[in-house]
Design goal:
paralog of FGE (formylglycine-generating enzyme); 2 domains; three-stranded mixed β-sheet; 10 strands
Length: 290
């Protein structure tokens, strides 16, 4: 009886220890479950939203860049492998660039013009000693920002311009679609195009035109500067096109508010667009990546 009693005492923990073991087990189980869900979400290849800064995570992997059926500068179609990256859900607005100009001014320390302050198409002006967006245009995509200005703004907020390959993957996805929303022809529920001079729309106005990852406004409204120089395909990040110093003409993507439908494709590179990188333009804006 003594041996049985001793064994029972050894095998039966106190109520306090039992509760402790129970909660340790519950917490361990919950930790494993949460970790499994996070890993499953990441591996699924679906984009995730970072709500803190309005960015969309684009998963690592390859996609087909360019087209064999489009203009010469889109050829050849070729496969590009990319690391995971994040890209802004919407283009940068006039209000955001106004804050940037108040912090750094319209010309940087290298004498590079960041914003065409004297252009009639600009929607940011200096009032009472401060830069501010024109009333009613605060949430419209910024225009008249030079490539230098787009580059410097992204650096100012701790980001960078997307490469041409990153931009196209964010717009096209892995299924080779012609437009961010799919293959159906553009209409005014999906994008701002065929509009009048400087008739931009507020960013995020066309949720039906979102890309497969949930990125908005990748077709129409404004063309977007990318970091890459406008060089022939195939795309290679190691051939000098990603050198951010002044020099070559830079790429633009997506089409603008005054573009015809054929310029809204995910492979369009804006070969007929006026895009001197040293100055701003009425139909070119940008977004940032990380």
């Amino acid at each position: 009886m003594i041996k049985i009693s001793v064994t029972a005492v050894i095998r039966c923990p106190t109520p306090q220890k039992a509760r402790l073991f129970f909660w340790i087990g519950v917490r361990s189980f919950l930790f494993v479950m949460v970790l499994a869900i996070l890993l499953s979400t990441w591996r699924s290849g679906h984009a995730q939203t970072d709500k803190r800064n309005g960015m969309i995570m684009i998963p690592a992997g390859s996609f087909v860049m360019g087209s064999n059926d489009g203009p010469e500068d889109e050829r050849p179609a070729h496969r590009v492998e990319l690391k995971a990256f994040a890209i802004d859900r919407t283009p940068i607005t006039n209000a955001l660039v106004a804050a940037f100009l108040n912090a750094v001014g319209p010309i940087n320390s290298n004498g590079e013009r960041l914003f065409d302050v004297d252009d009639n198409d600009a929607r940011i002006h200096r009032r009472d000693g401060r830069w501010s967006a024109d009333p009613g245009f605060e949430n419209h995509p910024v225009v008249e920002v030079s490539w230098f200005g787009a580059r410097d703004y992204c650096a100012w907020v701790g980001k960078r311009l997307p490469t041409e390959a990153e931009w196209e993957k964010a717009a096209r996805g892995k299924d080779g679609r012609n437009y961010p929303w799919g293959d159906s022809s553009p209409d005014r529920t999906r994008a701002q195009f065929n509009a009048g001079w400087n008739e931009t729309a507020p960013v995020g106005s066309f949720p039906k035109g979102a890309s497969p990852y949930g990125v908005f406004d990748l077709a129409g409204n404004v063309w977007e500067w990318v970091s890459s120089a406008y060089l022939p395909y195939p795309y290679s990040p190691s051939d000098g096109r990603e050198d951010l110093r002044a020099g070559p003409v830079r790429g633009t993507r997506g089409g603008g508010h005054d573009s015809p439908p054929e310029e809204l494709t995910t492979t369009q590179r804006g070969r007929n667009l006026s895009r001197n990188f040293r100055s701003g333009h009425h139909n070119i804006g940008f977004r940032c990546a990380r």
